[in-house]
Every structure is written in C-alpha cells, then in structure tokens.
Amino acid sequence: MLKDISLETLNHCAKCSTCTANCPVAKVNPDFPGPKAVGPDWLRLSLNAETKVDYPEGIEYCSNCKNCEIACPSGVPVASLNQLTRAEKLKKKGFRLREKLFANPRLLGRIAVNFAGLVNFFTKIKIFRLIGKTLFGISENISFPAYAHKSFSRWFGSYRQKVNKPKNKVVYFPGCFTEYNKPEVGEALVKILNRLNYEVIVPEFKCCGQPAIGNGRLDTAQEFAHFNLSQLKKYVKDGTPVLFSCPSCLLTFKEEYGGLLGIEEAREFVPYFYEAGEFLRGLQEIDKLLECEPIEGKYAYHEPCHLKASGVGTPGLELLNEVAVNKIVPLDAGCCGLSGSYGLKAEKEPITEAIGQNLKKAIDRHAPEALVTECGMCGVQLNNVSGLPVYHPLELLAEKITKES
Amino acid sequence: MYDLVVIGAGMSGLMAAGAGARRQKKVLVVAKGQGALSLSSGCIDFNPGLLEREEGSPYFKVREVVEESFNFFKYLVKRCGLNYVGSPSEQTRIFTTLGTVKNSCLVPESMFLENPDSYERIIAVGFKGYFDFSPKMFLYYAKKSGIFPGLKETEEVYFEPGVRTVNTTWLAQALTRGELKEKLIAFLKPYARPKTLMVFPAVLGDLPEDRLFKEVEEVLGVKVVELPGGFPSVPGQRLHKALVSSLKEMGVNFLFNAEVIGYKKNLRQVTSIKIKESGGRVREISGKAFVLATGSFWGKGLRANTEEICEPIFQSKVYLPRNFAEDFNFLASGIYTDEYLRPIKELENLYGAGSILANSNYLKNNSGLGLALATGYKAGLLALGDGEVRRNA
Ligand SMILES: Cc1cc2nc3c(=O)[nH]c(=O)nc-3n(C[C@H](O)[C@H](O)[C@H](O)COP(=O)(O)OP(=O)(O)OC[C@H]3O[C@@H](n4cnc5c(N)ncnc54)[C@H](O)[C@@H]3O)c2cc1C
Ligand code: SF4
Ligand code: SF4
C-alpha cells in the first residue's frame, strides 16, 4: 500500500484548508468534515500512539474525486490518504453485499449485457428500486446506466480492422463502461485509429479497480491491477502505447496502481499510458483528418474530475474545437457528484443530487443542444440533471472523420 | 503548438493568459495546486504610493498598463457575475471580520461600503457553531474605529444553521439553497429598519455568481456587507473560480495537476517545458513563448533550503534581501528581470510575472494581488510580441 504515509508527507501540509474549500462533498454535506480533517489532521494524531483516536467520523462520504489533491499547493496526496483510512475503517466494520457488488462492475455487467432490455427495464421501475433501497441500500432515484445489447468485446471480436501495411499498433483498454454500457465509444476509437493506420489490440482485462477502491476493497483492486499489468507487460516492453477512453481507468492505471495500491512495478508502465484524445492529438496525421466536414450544433463540455487529476488537460475538447463550427462551451461546474457507484448508494443520493445542482445551473445558463464528456458515469449524471443526450468526444469525432469521402 | 504557455494559475498567470486570449492566441496554463490567489481575501490590494518607495519594484516596468489591466480584470470576473469596485488610483476602505479597517484597491461589490457615516444601526450577524467570526469582537472594534459617527445602536445576532459543526464552504453553499435562505431572511426581518447596516462573514454564497448579499439587501431594505478574514477564504475561491471559468470560456486551455520541472531550449529560445503528471509521467509541451508565474514561497515558485533560495524550473538568478530574517524582509526575495520582465538573458521568449519577481514584498507595499495582476497582464502582452508595449516600456 501507499508507502509515503510518513510524518514527512504530513509535514508538507501547511493546514491552509485549500483542499477542504475544493471538496465538493464537504460543500454539501455537513457530516463530512472535509479532506484536511479526515486526512492530514487525523493521521497526525493517529501516527502517535499517545494521541491515537478512532477512525475519523464521516470519512465514508469521501468519493475519491481527487479535487482536494488537485488543489493542494503542497503536493500532499490527500485523496489517497483518505482512501487508505476509509478502506481500513470499512474493512473493520465489514462490507455489505452492496460494496462487494459495486466493487466489480464486471460481475453485473457480464450478466446484464445478455439481458440488457430486461435489466434496463427493471432499473427504471419504481417498485424494484424501492426493493433495492430497502434490501441493499441502493439509491431509489438516481438513474442507473443503461446496459448495451452487445458488449464491446463481442463487437470487437467480429470486427475486421482495415489497416494498410506497414501498420502501427496500439493497445486499448475499454473499461467496464465501454464494455457493457456504451460500446459505441470503443467502436469510435477503433475506427478512428484504423483510419490513421493503427491496428488496435484489446487483450483480456479485468476492471481497472477504481470501483473497488471506491468501495473500500483495496485487496480486490490490487488483484485486478496485477492481472491487468501482467496482460500489458509484453506490449509495453515493445513500446506499444496503451490507450484509455475512460478517465477513471486512466487515472487508476497511471496513479493509483503505483501510488495508493503501492505496486512499485506499475510506475514503469506509466510512460506508455495515454488518454485516447491525447494520443490522437499527438499524431501528425490527425491534422489531415481534422479537415473533415465540421461538427455543427451547440455543445457544452463537462471536464471529469479524474481527467483533471490525470494531468493531461482536456485534449478531447481541444480536438473537438478544431472541427466544431461553434466553440464548445466549457461548463466548468466542477464535480458532477455521481462519482461512479458512489451516487448509486441510498445514503449518498442527496449528496449526489446537491452537487449536481451546479451542473444543472451551468447547463441551464448555456442552453446547449447536447453535452460532451469523456467519463461514462459523469455522462449518466449529466443526462440525469438535464435530459440532454451526452457524447464522448470520440463519438463526435468519429462520426465526421471516419465518414467515407 | 501553443502561442503562449503560462506556468502557474495564480493572479499573475491567469492575467497573462487573459492577455493572450484577448488577442485570440492559443494559450495553455499549466499548474500544480492553487497558489496564494484562492487563500487571499479576494481584495486586490494596490498602492502606487508605497510601490514607488520600493527600490527596484517591478511596478516601474508595468506602470503604463495598470489602468488597462485593471479594467480587463474587472471585465473578466464580471463575465462570471462577480463585480469588483474601485480603480487603481484610489484606495478603498473595507472592514475585516476583526472589526479593523483595511485599505485595498479593487474590492468585491459585496464588501464595498460607500458612506459609513450614513448608518445609525449595525447588526452583526454570526452563525451558531461557526467560530471564524465573532460579532461581539467586530462590534467592539468597529465602534472604536470612529468610522461610524452616526451610530446609535448595535446588535449581535446569531443565526442557527441547524448542523453540529459548521464548515465555511458548506455554510456558503447552504445559505444559497432554498430553505436555509428563506430561514435566514425570516430570521433577519425583525432587525430590518432604515439606516441599518448588516455585516456578515464572507459566506454569502460560494460561487462567483451568487448574489445573496444583494437579495438580502433588496428583500429587507438594508445595506449588507461581507467581511473577509480566515481560512478557507470564500471570496478568494470565488475570485479564482471566476477568472478560470472566464478564461475557459474565452478558449484558454488548462492543464491542472501537472508540475513543471524543467525546460528545453534551442539557441536563445525556450522551445518546451517538461512537466510531471500524475503517476510521475514526464512529457514536454512546446510553445512559442512562456510566462513564469509560479508565485513566491507559498505558490512554490521559490524554494528555500538551508543554504539558498532558488527558482527551480529555469534556475533564474534570485535576489536575497538584506537582513533577510528580520521584519518579513524575506518576502522581497525573487527573480531579477530586465526591463521587459525577462529573467534570463539567454532565454528571449521567457517572461516573469507576479510575486516571484524580486523587490515585491506584499506585506510592505500592500500591493500583492494588484501587482501580480498588472505584471501578469504585461508579461502576457510582451510574450506575444506586442510591439507597442515594448516601445513604451
Ligand atoms: C495567505 C495569503 C493571503 C494573501 N492575501 C492577499 C490579499 O488579500 N490581497 C492581496 O492583494 N494580496 C494578498 N496576498 C498576496 C498575494 O496573494 C500574492 O502576492 C499574489 O497572489 C501572488 O500571485 P502569483 O500569481 O504571483 O502567485 P500564486 O497565486 O501563488 O500562484 C502561483 C501558481 O503557480 C503554480 N506553480 C508553482 N510552481 C509550479 C510548478 N513547478 N509547476 C506548475 N505550477 C506551479 C502554483 O500552483 C500556483 O497556481 C496574500 C498572500 C498570502 C500568502
Ligand atoms: S490543501 Fe494541502 S497543505 Fe492545505 S490543508 Fe489541505 S493537505 Fe494541507
Ligand atoms: S477525494 Fe473528493 S470527496 Fe474525497 S476528500 Fe478529496 S475532494 Fe473530498
């Protein structure tokens, strides 16, 4: 696990409260004391046997959105510190079935994708949601992401990539959301890459582990991490880039494997990890493709917290702006509030709803026709608060640049 | 390839980016963490009289853009619904939570009090469970200050927000939401009379566009003033948010959570900067010109160890004030620059701005954010090769 929890890390904390001022949860939930209090402040006490106190109250409310860490002027890994303490506390209390289920989206996804119509139907019916809430503590009102009828890997398995020789290769990690809920995103990426003469390889993967971290199951996350890294080893050794279309998967591979989960070896993989838009933007050949038919319409963009935390900027937005007639409006409304499976839990529902108000306000102000964001779960929340269609930048790009001229 | 790459998202970096965006240039701002800007009171201190007394002050290099940059700043934040009052040639008096009077320059509309002598009653509004503001202390010092000659009556009142512990940002957000807002207004109603001033800690809404102070004024027919003080600073956060949002809307690109750790050059030009992202990945970002706006000690633009003070990215030469350890003199430390704000002779497209510049001690010149604002804006113009600016300099 995270090695750098030492007094030294904590001594970097200047107690300025910038982290707490930027925590979307502390802003709407008075029962969460905020990152400074449950993080550095609590750890200072707990590292000393004489002042050791019980686990901080309210730490369960942390959503691992990383805004505290992004804002901290002193480089304290506040969010990771909180995940460690939270996981320890949850473990001690014992996990509910709900945490076990949410920790691995593949369990549900694999089944649901075969009965998508049925599952999507049931998750919309009030009485079933009520049962879910009473028995499992699952939110009654927040929309569940709809499942696709055909998983990404099923599509990919039967898709014939059209690439000329000599060709380049990239590995793609689709992530659970693309795999089970929105395969269109992966399809878009594959088609764009093919146009650029890249062949796409999709090895067998497990979930990235972010949902497991979010549900306090760090052991499970580590297990996934080891499996995923071993699958990537041979490609990375040859210098093959690994692409992610989901910001949370990217952040997990890039930051959490080597940081929070303490897998030393993961650091060596980091130079090969790219956000998909970032990779595309870096290719010279893309310029020609961007001279395509322009994207019309009024779109607004939501920046996912985990994309921001990855430190890659907003390459998807930059690419879109190259081809959009109207500049894409940045919503800049902060965290969406859903934070993966966080908002699907009954006790977190009011928090998610309250945080989402800022998004709603920003969307109302700009009145776009549709929304754009990289994160699937942010997309679910964007749709919840606005009713508007939501696209991944790759989907909009692919529609234009893979059009046969 | 960016026309302008700005390192640092404090006041100076954001204004440099603004200067670029205004000229439709492709601009990127890279930042690791929020600097002093969001911790500040939100009031833009600026005092030319004191600046002129500071030998070698960067003020002398930016005088001619002060007016323009201040106007542009007001325009930027106003786009997000945050209004600022004041002008660079005047001092504006505001009150703090301690009841003391502070001279600043541009202040948020919510802190501005035009004619203190016209009020006969002050109601100081505190919140139960919130300890960063003591209405009692405020009134004690405000009465002593002599600024309210017409004062006949004061009262301290405490609103009950209904939670056990009150965190500043929660309070600021909660007060703008339906029920609590209604409750607050109903609670204050009995105290609303003519010639009444109601003072609050600066928690009346967390977003730049929240105008709760105006709403209370309009509904109750009293004057409302917010008082800065304490951490976290809601007005500092609002200011930061307004600038960033406004620049994003103008097309500026932002790269957060990435630390600049070095650079590459070719002949006499910086060609790219090296950044370290999450997970430790290092990559390069190229640009035509660069602005170094990484702040002073707090912002991490200057680092001190036991032997020396250094500027870690470009290793610019750093000025060390005499009697360093005394009387906050160390705050004047910073990088030397030429008349065009360039720190290194051999790097012609690199410009410095903000509190990283030598001879700007914000505790002594009372011009922290104001000087960052003007130097940032000018550095942005110079970096874009604005010929006229260069001739005037
Ligand atoms: C606590 C406090 C309160 C203050 N209150 C006031 C006030 O009320 N009014 C006033 O006028 N002045 C005030 N001042 C002074 C004023 O805030 C500063 O002078 C001014 O903000 C400096 O602006 P800046 O842009 O130079 O630096 P900063 O605002 O500190 O910004 C520096 C930026 O650079 C980034 N950065 C640094 N190194 C790197 C790197 N290697 N890679 C990437 N990014 C980097 C930082 O993360 C940050 O975004 C205050 C100062 C402090 C410390
Ligand atoms: S922002 Fe960083 S330095 Fe400030 S209190 Fe939080 S952890 Fe400490
Ligand atoms: S990770 Fe997000 S929710 Fe958790 S403390 Fe940090 S800012 Fe708050």
What is the structural class of chain B?
alpha/beta
* CATH architecture label name of the largest domain in chain B: 3-Layer(bba) Sandwich
What's the CATH C level of the domain at 286-401 in chain A? Alpha Beta
**Largest interface (C-beta under 8 Å):** A-B, 49 and 48 residues
List the total number of helices of chain B: 12
Tally of discrete structural domains of chain B: 2
Ligands and ions found? flavin-adenine dinucleotide, iron/sulfur cluster
Provide the β-strand percentage band of chain B: 15-25%
Number of helices of chain A: 23
- What composes the largest sheet of chain B? 7 strands, mixed
% residues in beta strands of chain A: 5-15%
CATH homologous superfamily classification of the largest domain in chain B: FAD/NAD(P)-binding domain
Can you walk through the features of this model?
The complex is a heterodimer of chains A (405) and B (393). With 405 residues, chain A is α/β, with parallel strands linked by helices. Among the domains of chain A are: 7-93, Fumarate Reductase Iron-sulfur Protein, Chain B, domain 2, CATH 1.10.1060.10; 286-401, Rossmann fold, CATH 3.40.50. Chain A has 23 helices and eight strands. Chain A has helices at 7-11, 18-21, 24-28, 35-46, 67-71, 78-93, 97-103, 105-112, 116-122, 126-136, 152-158, 175-181, 183-195, 210-214, 218-237, 247-256, 276-281, 286-289, 305-310, 315-323, 349-366, 376-386, 393-401; strands at residues 168-173, 198-201, 242-244, 273-275, 299-301, 329-330, 370-372, 390-391. In chain A, the strands form two sheets. Chain A has a four-stranded parallel beta sheet. In chain A, strands 6-5-7-8 form a four-stranded parallel beta sheet. In chain A, helix 16 (247-256) links the parallel strand 3 and strand 4 (273-275). In chain A, helix 12 (175-181) crosses helix 13 (183-195). The radius of gyration of chain A is 21 Å and the shape is globular. With 393 residues, chain B is α/β, with parallel strands linked by helices. Chain B folds into two domains: 2-83 and 237-392, FAD/NAD(P)-binding domain (3-Layer(bba) Sandwich), CATH 3.50.50.60; 97-227, no CATH class. Chain B contains twelve helices and 19 strands. In chain B, the strands form six sheets. In chain B, strands 1, 2, 11, 12, 13, 14 and 19 form a seven-stranded mixed beta sheet that branches. A four-stranded parallel beta sheet of chain B has the order 8-7-9-10, with helices on both faces. In chain B, strands 3-6 form a two-stranded antiparallel sheet. In chain B, strand 1, helix 1 and strand 2 (27-31) form a beta-alpha-beta unit. In chain B, helix 1 (11-22) packs parallel to helix 9 and helix 4 packs across helix 9. Chain B is elongated and about 70 Å long. The two termini of chain B are 28 Å apart. The mean pLDDT of chain B is 94. The interface between A and B is large, with 49 and 48 residues. Flavin-adenine dinucleotide binds next to helix 1, strand 2, strand 12 and helix 11 of chain B.
